Amino acid sequence: MKSVNVYIPGTVSNVGSGFDVMGFAMGGVGEKMRVSLIDGNEIRLVDESGYNLPMVAASNTGAVALQSFRKALNITQGFEIVFETKIKPGSGLGSSASSAVGAVFGANELMGSPFTRKELIYFAMDGEEVASGSRHADNVAPAMLGSFVLIRSLNPFDVVQIPAPESLFCTVVHPQIEVKTSEARSLLPKQIPLKDAIQQWGNTAALIAGLYQSDFGLIGRSMTDLVAVPVRCRFIPNYELAVERAMAAGAIGFSISGSGPSMFAFSDSLETAQKVADAVAEVFTAQGIERQSYVGRIDPTGVKLQ
Amino acid sequence: MKSVNVYIPGTVSNVGSGFDVMGFAMGGVGEKMRVSLIDGNEIRLVDESGYNLPMVAASNTGAVALQSFRKALNITQGFEIVFETKIKPGSGLGSSASSAVGAVFGANELMGSPFTRKELIYFAMDGEEVASGSRHADNVAPAMLGSFVLIRSLNPFDVVQIPAPESLFCTVVHPQIEVKTSEARSLLPKQIPLKDAIQQWGNTAALIAGLYQSDFGLIGRSMTDLVAVPVRCRFIPNYELAVERAMAAGAIGFSISGSGPSMFAFSDSLETAQKVADAVAEVFTAQGIERQSYVGRIDPTGVKLQ
Questions:
Q1: DSSP label at B298?
Q2: Do B197 and A200 touch (CB under 8 A)?
Q3: Measured between alpha carbons, how far is residue B165 from residues A274, B42, B148, B249 in Å?
Q4: A55-80 confidence digits (pLDDT tens)
Q5: Which end of chain A has the smaller Cβ count within 10 Å, N or C?
Q6: Predicted confidence band of residue B184 (pLDDT cuts 50, 70, 90)
Q7: How far is B196 from chain A (nearest CA, A)?
Q8: pLDDT: which is higher, A147 or B136
Q9: Distance between CA atoms of A252 and B28, rounded to whole angstroms?
Q10: How far apart are CA A288 and CA A12, in angstroms?
């Protein structure tokens, strides 16, 4: 049985002012799966992760992405996906995207790499759609490509990899409160003031410039999101205090990961990133809310064989 | 009489998707002035340009900017500004900004450079405000710094210089039709759909990435403006035909300069930029509309001594 072992990094989407168009891959947190060619035409799912993943092919993001991959190649080749370790579902680190990315990346390797990484994003998006109910690439694209990724357009499909400063570190804190992505999304305004929109694209553009120039001050100043964060922060008790504590601990910038409730911060050293994690975690511990923290560099490569 | 001779490049503001936050300085078209220290406290204006510039200090952008500069230094030193050659007013190349930039840059040199270029932008904006009725930096900042400039925020003041690919050429065509900036501005929507706003900041961010990566295809794809161009193109007869002819002649991208009626295009060679100029000019000539064309590289340095 021909197999590959695949590692997929966790991802953070939105990145403040990059709402709905950006994401990045995070080092130090990811998941592992084994993808194998099997006889027959089945897509067989094996869950060793301990998280009770959806094991019906139609609702498993990896299986749906893999089915899309098979269709594009016009093949019925059977595959087995063993989910060995998983990013915690709901942790704000793109766990549904990572399964989709790992499955198609592994299958592509086993089939002799008929597709490029960018092409594989398209299949992974089909999987992501099952989990999130909307077609978007701001987790799957960075999980596939690594570093920061800008999704300029889905149709036509146009994604751009943006370099990450080497000494940029990230903290993610996941408080154990439930936020329904669909609810978080339904509260977004349908229209926004032009004045705010202009400020937001000034920030998005400056965030990209900050990443190219490794200008940490500029990165921090440019992260302000006028659209989603003001709505979504209401679901996170004492969000403003968390921001304040993170900045006091030395963070460059702070925002919500995806639709929340996870939050992320950038720092210029591992030590500061850890201090930020502790300071933010304390805000939730003090409220009796369980939380996990993750600290790491930006992952430069994305999904890879192990 | 201590004097300096100053050259100020023409500028294009907005840059498509960079509406209200970007501008660039253009090589091959600019203006010259001589700034001198004089006895007394007068700001004396001498017009040798042939364009009948406003010679009353309160309505001359150079004099207003210079007054703002004097106030910041708390001095009453007299200056003379001789406008030797001018960018044609109304040409869409930032002629009011260039006078303001030249005046404060020259005066700063004569006073021993108490201010940085970025600081001088602030005084030049005071001058620009007199001419345009609104406080903005998307012409004065690139005229001062050169290359592309992103204005992330006016308050606090935060501008970022963005590198220009060496082989990026620009065409500007100015058809002789009158568009009132205030009217062009009043027609802008007060609110825009969130969906459009997201697409616009995806484009603005990608335009910045395209400039850093010298990716001409990405620059061209990212220039689409969903906000101002759809409104302002109505004032330019056969705008769509001009776009079509420019692209057919090999342009990378095409948009309106500032609030119009001038248009600009990017190309990857001087030869193509000239072809684009001819193709666009022909659209207006065929309608009996006079036009001027300008072709050049991006100016890398901004205002300078001669």
A1: B
A2: yes
A3: 39, 43, 10, 20
A4: 888 889 999 999 999 999 999 999 99
A5: N
A6: low
A7: 9
A8: A147
A9: 41
A10: 25
Lowest-pLDDT choice from A31-40, A92-101, A127-136, B15-24:
A127-136
Q: Across the beta sheet with A291-297, what order do the strands follow? A: A253-256, A263-267, A169-175, A291-297
Predicted pLDDT of residue A178: 79
Is A203–B152 a contact, with Cβ atoms under 8 angstroms apart?
A: yes
In angstroms and rounded to an integer, the radius of gyration of the C-alpha atoms of chain B is: 19
Q: Which residue type does B268 have?
A: D
Say how many CB pairs under 8 Å bridge A and B: 124
CB-CB: which of B19, B151, B194 is closest to A189? B194
Minimal CA separation from A70 to chain B, in Å? 30
- Are A192 and B188 in contact (CB < 8 Å)? no
pLDDT tens digit sequence for B11-29 = 999 999 999 999 999 999 9
pLDDT in tens, A145-194: 999 999 999 989 999 999 999 999 999 999 998 777 667 677 899 999 99
Backbone angles phi, psi at B152, to 5 degrees: -70, -40
Catalytic residues of A: 128, 181
Report pLDDT digits (tens) over B79-132. Answer: 999 999 888 888 889 988 999 999 999 999 999 999 999 999 999 999 999 887
One-letter amino acid at A237 equals P
Note if B282 is an active site residue. Answer: no
CA distance B305 to B109: 9
Check CB contact under 8 Å for A160 and B190: no
What would the mean pLDDT of A105-113 be, rounded to a whole number? Answer: 98
Which of A151, A209, A221 is opposite residue B208, by nearest beta carbon? A209
Tell me which chain A residues have a C-beta less than 8 angstroms from the C-beta of B210.
160
Select which of B48, B80, B119, B181 is catalytic. Answer: B181
Encoded tokens for B78: 């007299």
State how far the Cα of B290 lies from the Cα of B175, in Å rounded to an integer.
6
Distance CA B134, CA B141 (A): 15
Query: What per-residue confidence (pLDDT) applies to B133?
Result: 79
Give backbone dihedrals phi and psi of A107, rounded to 5 degrees, phi first. Answer: -60, -40
Q: B61 with B123: CB under 8 angstroms?
A: no
**Nearest Cβ partner for A160 among B151, B197, B206:** B206
Nearest-Cα distance to chain A for B258, in Å, is 15
- SS3 sequence, A280-294? HHHHHHCCCCCEEEE
Interface with chain B: mutation pick from A152, A207, A219, A231, highest number of B CBs within 10 Å: A152
